[in-house]
Amino acid sequence: MRRWLLPLLAAVACSHGPAVLPEDPDDAGTVDPAADAGTAPGCRGFSAPRRVGNNPAELPELSGLAASRKHPGIYWAHNDSGNALELLAISEDGALRARIPLTGARNVDVEDVAVAPCGESTCVVLADVGDNQERRTGVALYRLLEPDVLDDAPRAVEVLPFRYEDRPHNVESFVADPVDGTAWLVTKGLFTLGDVYRVDGLGAPDGGTAVKVAALANPGLDQLSTAADAHPEGHSVLVRSYGRAWLYRAPDGGSLAGAWGASPVEVPAPSQPQSEAVSWLPDGRGYLVGTEGAGEGLFRVDCVP
Questions:
Q1: Are strands 245-249 and 265-267 parallel, antiparallel or unpaired?
Q2: Could you report the per-residue pLDDT of 237-282, keeping only the tens digit for each?
Q3: Angle at CA 50, nearest 5°, toward 45 and 55?
Q4: R_g of the chain, CA atoms, integer Å
Q5: Residue 92 contacts by C-beta under 8 Å, 6 or more apart in sequence?
Q6: Which residues of 185-207 are buried (b: 16+ CB within 10 A; e: fewer)?
Q7: Which residues contact 39 (CB under 8 A, 6 or more apart)?
Q8: Are the C-beta atoms of residues 63 and 292 closer than 8 Å to each other?
Q9: What is the largest CA-CA distance in the chain?
Q10: pTM of this prediction?
């Protein structure tokens, strides 16, 4: 959910950062690759962001992106609170390919989305975890099998409720491990990027429990994480804030669990008014970044070989 104070605080905290990257793809050029920022063999760093599309009118409050595993070139997207609970399929240029109503739950404040292994298939998982006032005693993940066909037919979701082990938290960043499906959350910390919680016991009769496992290292003194996504190979995670993007990579290409304690590397991100969405490309050799606002830009960042 939008709050006017949050982007203002983020702008103050990030005012010491690198120059704002141009939004015109003709002016983007490239940036020096960050040391050890490679995410796949032959990838040393990343290019500057280039605008590849725009949010469709149906996504005025884009709050999450996740690359489809079944439909090449398609990204699952959604709006946050105040909108219907639905899953939208868009291409990289923002063209709407499907708008799927979801039944069995409501959109309290869905803030992020991920694609996770689900038995012999894959599932799309929406994280209804936004809580600006930090008062929700229970939150939930909404899970459905990734659709085989891109159409507008309604689908039912499975509701997976959970609670935090300590107290309610405001969260906009959700990650599903692409290897084992473990659910991870990053709180929207003030004057910090946030704390990492692992959700245990999802699907249990009494619901799951989110257990704190790490506090994100943050040498850039950034704050207010707004989105996150796991690399398709499971060794790295991208964390987006209003002003920056960070790569956390497990040492020696280890598991995602080991990435949370790593020292982050700042990676290129466009200047956007309310950036709340990030997704790796399906091959892990770049990422897509989006912001709230119909007609606002979708930006792609590519691997520098």
A1: antiparallel
A2: 999 999 999 999 999 878 999 999 999 999 999 999 899 999 999 9
A3: 125
A4: 17
A5: 52, 53, 73, 75, 288, 298, 300
A6: bbbbbeebbbbbbbbeebeeeeb
A7: 231, 233, 235, 236, 247, 249, 280, 284, 285, 303
A8: yes
A9: 55
A10: 0.89
